[in-house]
Amino acid sequence: MKERRRAQRVRALRSAKIIFNNRQSVIDCAIRNLSDEGGCLQLQSQAGVPDVFDLRVDGEKRVRPCHLIWQSRDKVGISFHDVSQDPAKKDEPKNRGPMAKISEWRRNPETPLNIDLIRGELLTLRAALDEVEFGIVLLDNELRAQFINRAFRTMWRLPDAKADGKPAFVALMYHGRDARAYAVPAKDVDAYVAERVAVVKAGAPTPVDLRLTNGEVIRFQCAVLPAGGRMLSYTYVTDIARSSDDLAAMRAALDSMEAGVLVLDANLNTRFMNRAARGLWKVSADRAEARPSFAQLVDEARTNAGDSAADDRDPAIASRLERVRVGDHKPADLRMVDGRVIRSQCAAVPGGGRVLTYADVTDLIEQAERLERLAATDEMTGLRNRRHFLALAVAEWSRFKRHRRPLSLLMIDIEGLSSINERFGYETGDQVIVHAAILCSEEKRGSDLIGRIGGGEFAVLLPETDLAQASGLAERLAHRAAQRPCPTNGTNIAVKLNVGAAEATSRMSDFGMLMKTAEQARRATSSARRGVARKALVSNPESEVAAS
């Protein structure tokens, strides 16, 4: 520092011009920290400044030959030299600083060592370090400060008197403790200081973020110098640290969610996978940190997570990859082999990435399916209700109209149901209805549609069936009913079914006309039976009761 004070320096800015390219190119600048050995030039931009150039300072007649020592965003450090007095140095490599000259001298002690030049360049270097925006501390091999730049002094509010006194590094740490600068509990401050000193003694190069009580964050790094000293750098990274803190908080929040979250980059590789997503796809934290591709995750889910959709690999995986690639936001349900249903949704994010969410909607799906069954099913018999049966029948009618394939319909009712209700009660009547529904279901084929139309009325739609085949089915159904009475509370009640059959024709305008024709046939069957002696409605091993 004493050498720095002895050097002639001019603090005021003076205008100057950088001249190069055989005096054809000129860059305006301002010169500061001017000494006999060099100085610092301030420019709008250091871009385009050559390594060697001439400098004309306003008010001076002479032109100073100089070369570049260092450069930053809008400043450059220079060292003056006179190549006219030493022509041999014209071909000397550029930017050979004092350390290079000292290293060369150590290798070959007979090499002349220009101490004055080196001292000047060191002063220039120190002046340059005083201009940078990050803190710099140079320690000797005993960890005493040999140089502390202005940015460090401002950063830690270090008085010049203390900084110029070449304090030990531990003293600098205690200055921060006394100023209560460290965001560390009071009881832990001494241990914190000891830890920082140990890091510098060891010369550990790993960057460390120091958090201050004023909310700022400074990134500290240590570098070991050739003579055993240390160079310490301190850089404000508050915005970066806050962003990192926000990201950590967001990750923690996402990890606490029940829904799975998967974040992909523009190449569809994993960037983040929260705990729920890892559990869903049976992916370890280490595997997620390895950033597997989405294709790999889907493929691995086939064995790890039991994703049934991945069993048929070609269409399922290709379809899922395509949905994610195009950013299709429509929800898709993935059925697992254990019966769960996972709803997946994809969203495109800026930069080409994707965010996928996964939610277990098994309960919702099951509830929706139950409601759908209730809406389409007759609660008593388990058959299709009238509304659902008619909806399916109309669709089948449309197929008949297009292809003219055979289509028939049976209309069925339980004869004497009202008498059964009056005599034995409605509970018994309901048992008879269920019994009739079972009889009808046993006779139907897989392609047939059967529904309960009314109280004791049923309909059976028979695709690919002509009238002769339908009539045969009607006879078998009536015969089965006659052979199997309905058991109720130890009493067998005979069940008689009236069945009418009709076949669709091109003359019929809609399905309603087919139903009407089949209903007319059923009524004709019922009327014909009324002229025949009725069989007993109730029978048991002990007695037989005739109908009234």
Q: Would you kindly provide a written description of the structure presented here, covering whatever features stand out?
A:
The chain is an alpha+beta fold. Helix content is 40%, strand content 24%. It has 18 helices and 24 strands. It has a six-stranded antiparallel beta barrel. Helix 2 packs antiparallel against helix 3 (115-131) and helix 16 crosses helix 17. The chain is elongated, with a radius of gyration of 47 Å. The termini are far apart. Mean pLDDT is 82; it is low at 1-10, 85-95 and 531-548.
Keywords:
548 residues; alpha+beta; 5-stranded antiparallel sheet; 18 helices; elongated
Beta-strand proportion: 15-25%
How much helix, percentage-wise, in residues? 25-40%
The SS-based structural class is alpha+beta
Discrete helix count:
18
Residue-averaged pLDDT? 82
